[in-house]
Specification:
Order of helices and strands: EHEEEHEHEHEHEHEHEHEHEHEHH
Largest sheet: 7 strands, parallel
Strand order of the largest sheet: 3-2-1-4-5-6-7
Number of helices: 12
Helix content: 25-40%
């Protein structure tokens, strides 16, 4: 009988960044049967992953949630946080964490509880230097790597379909500026009204410069993690705008692959969502990275990616810097190999031979 690997701390397949994480981990652990469960009524397609009502007992487990250890009530520990920690207690010596970041909200008592649980695991690998430093200081033997979605590749089929979707919107890829966006809440603090004003101004500037601004819908998940309402409000103020929504297009690819195809062929990319930047870089393109958390900041600092914090972003003075990214390329091969190697290191420690 072959091994079964369970993905735990899952969030939703309706967030394309998270779906990319699940696809990447399933591919990296392809010698095993990989299973997961989600709260989604209609889960999106994840190649190779078996989605079950309950994952049951597995030979080993991978904790997958990128920012899943958010603790919404600072000073206390939430039920959701405890529930996520308990998922690591099934078989700690056969469980590893891969590609996580520790959110700003996880500190004090919640961080102590997290570090206590993680010290007992087979392996811990995080994707940003700040999380790595905090864990190391807390006595957790953590590996510093990058997001697991860096192991994904863009396909020619995805580029072709993305081009067709853009053509249906009357957008030539060579003049398209693809911009991701999100709503903000207590987990990621930024003023929603300020953000919309920044994006409206940016889109108007891009249009004046001869680019076609296109808003990318990257999540239709829960609460603030749904991009459509924000996109429609910005489009109301900038009628020239187009919206690229992978969820509303009929195609056979996983949605992250279609997004990667679009990122690979568009002239400019403004990445507000973290996985817009990751998937762009994994397809060899350099985005302008507008980060709002330590994970996004880490990409700019460690990889030298152009960009700044959303708080500091001035759309009136950034157009030249954004336009300059059009001619830059990124070596996706080296980072892909590093992520693959780091995964194998963790996998070999956790999975019984």
């Amino acid at each position: 009988m072959g091994r079964t690997i369970g993905l735990v701390n899952t969030y939703s397949t309706l967030n394309i960044g998270d779906a990319a994480i699940y696809s990447a981990l399933t591919a990296l652990a392809s010698e095993a049967k990989v299973v997961a469960q989600f709260p989604d009524l209609e889960p999106q397609y994840i190649p190779g992953l078996q989605i079950l009502p309950q994952i049951g007992t597995c030979d080993a487990y991978i904790s997958v949630g990128g920012d899943i250890f958010n603790n919404a009530r600072e000073g206390l520990i939430t039920k959701a946080f405890i529930k996520n920690l308990l998922q690591l207690q099934r078989k700690p010596r056969h469980t590893f964490v891969f590609g996580q970041s520790i959110p700003r909200s996880c500190h004090g008592l919640s961080f102590q509880a997290l570090a206590f649980c993680w010290r007992r695991l087979a392996a811990v690998c995080v994707r940003d230097a700040e999380s790595h430093k905090r864990l190391t200081q807390a006595g957790v033997k953590a590996i510093l790597s990058f997001d697991v979605a860096f192991s994904l590749c863009v396909s020619e089929e995805a580029k072709t379909i993305a081009k067709q979707v853009l053509q249906a919107l009357d957008v030539p890829p060579e003049s398209a500026a693809l911009i991701s966006l999100r709503a903000f809440d207590s987990m990621y603090s930024h003023d929603n009204q300020q953000f919309q004003t920044q994006l409206v101004t940016l889109c108007r500037h891009l249009y004046k410069q001869g680019y076609q601004p296109v808003l990318l819908i990257q999540s239709q998940a829960y609460g603030a993690d749904n991009d459509l309402a924000v996109a429609e409000e910005i489009a109301r103020q900038v009628p020239e705008l187009k919206i690229f929504n992978p969820f509303s297009v009929t195609h056979e690819l996983p949605n992250w692959q279609l997004v990667m195809g679009a990122l690979a062929i568009c002239r400019l990319i403004v990445a507000i969502r973290y996985h817009t930047a990751v998937l762009a870089l994994a397809s060899g393109k350099v985005p302008f990275n507008l980060y709002y958390s330590n994970k996004g900041k880490d990409l700019t600092q460690r990889l030298g990616i152009p960009g700044c914090s959303l708080q500091q972003f001035n759309p009136d003075t950034s157009i030249d810097a954004i336009a300059a990214t059009a001619n830059q390329t990124f070596d996706d091969v080296a980072i892909r190999q590093q992520v693959q190697q780091d995964f194998q290191t963790c996998y070999s420690r956790a999975v019984p031979t």
